[in-house]
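Fig. S4 source data, part A: sequence.
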Amino acid sequence: MGPHKATVKGSSSGAAAKKKAKSKVKKKTNFFDLRDGAVKACWENILGHVLILKKPILVDESHWRYDRKPLPHETPSAAKEWTPGMSELGSKVYFSENTFYFNSNSTFDRWTAVNRTSGKLLRKVGVDITSALTSLVDGIQRCSGLQELRIGVNEVQFVETMCQPEHGFRHDRKRPKDITPQLNLLVLRTNGMDKLRETHVPKVKFTPLVHGSITDITIAKRTTGPIRHGTLEKVVAKEMMIPKEVVTSTYETNAVIPIPKRKPAVDSDDEYNPGKRSAKRARVGTRSTPARAAKSRISAIGALAIAAELDPQAESEPEPDVEAVQEATEKASTLATTPQAFQILNLPAELRNQIYRHILVIDGPVNPSKRIPTTHHRAGTNLPEKALYRSGTAPSSCLALLQTNKQVSKEASVFFYQNAFVFYYPNQMMMFLQTISEDRKQYIEQITLWYHNLRQGDTDSIDVYLSAVGSLKKLRIFELMLDDGAMYHLERYRRAGTSFAGESSLKEMVKGGLDVRVRSQNVDTYFWKRKRNPAHDASSLMRFRASRGAIRNLQSRIRSISTTDEVESSRESSDSSEQ
């Protein structure tokens, strides 16, 4: 028993000695575990040469799943050899210094939802918009370190989606040049646009769809992108780049506007100025309430009592009317804080004309209507009726300037009616012409009307509309726009060899010296896209060629009347000269 016990004791003491020796051995130091700033910066530079790429990194649907494929430079073999410190530092360099392109906003949303830690490190991101903007907003909110955001859009498609007949517009294909500033504002009603405008990123730029949604980048640049100087560039991008602190301070300032304190001027012969001694006066810029008025009366009476004690002669003087003094003081305070009205008629006529032109004249045609302003609508297409509009009063029309007085109305109306007008439906034009006076009709110079005809008996409604247009004496340019239905009838009449409904009225307008133009926006847009993308909708090429030929044939028939008249008049003049 003894030797055996000794052996066990010896073995236990040997194990304890080995543990003690191991504890004295220092652990190996890993450079990535050091917290020294210089060492960390050195390794960031080394990893930067390996992990930072010159080209953007494309992220598609395969990278947002839980069993996602590794991104470039995320090889499994290298990842196994990385220490925790190296992995953390490498991820920081990789995700914060590279530029990542997402081929759709849904991919961006799902990838940031799955990779929340990596999403917070992203600083430079490009996203193509292929669905509702709400998913883009969710992804932006997860990227707390985002500094640069490139948003690939097709702004023309946004406008086409929001141009619905129930809102008084035409749902047709459009080119960027066909979208007026008035139509461009419809972008603000796109689903999710309100939330997007509330996000804040230091640098925002709208681009064509060049982040992976379209394979051919050249065609994407030709056919997509924001409208130059449009709503996305001038309104949305600028609002997103406003710092959040500035927006918050502006909101607080607008919520409670501090009124500057001013001392009301007191005349030397003021009744309430006993002995020119200082007395407590009412505050300037505050509303009078019963409690405040009572407090002011008490303060005034107290001041009179103090003044009487300091100046014995004041006791013999008659006591002033405190209520009258208080009323006069409040009136003086109101006049001091009320801004003086600016008289526009005091300006020279040249400056007034510049103001009228800046307010009332816009680029592109104007569609006069009684619709609620677009900026008062909330963004969205399927909103309930109670949530259609923003809270508060709707912004007033610039035409309210014409209701100021007779002189301003007479001077400014000249500029408004010099705009080019567009009417999407003939009834809009007829109501507009019936509403305005004959004097204002004389200023109209250009009108665009979308074709619509209804035959009743032996009369075409288009002839009635065209006769109303022909009655405008100062009209120089008239453009007739044909939709798909009108193109169908035009081609049918062409095959039958009969005249197009309204053709005779157009010929009469040309005889009167009016510049008449006929075109189809759908046909023009199709060939505009074909010019930039030869593979665009090749199956419809023959149909659109026939439509374009029918339009050219109609234009030649209309204008041939004027050329024939010119030839006949020249012949008559030559015959008379010979005689």
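Fig. S4 source data, part B ends here. The first strand starts at residue 57 and ends at 59.
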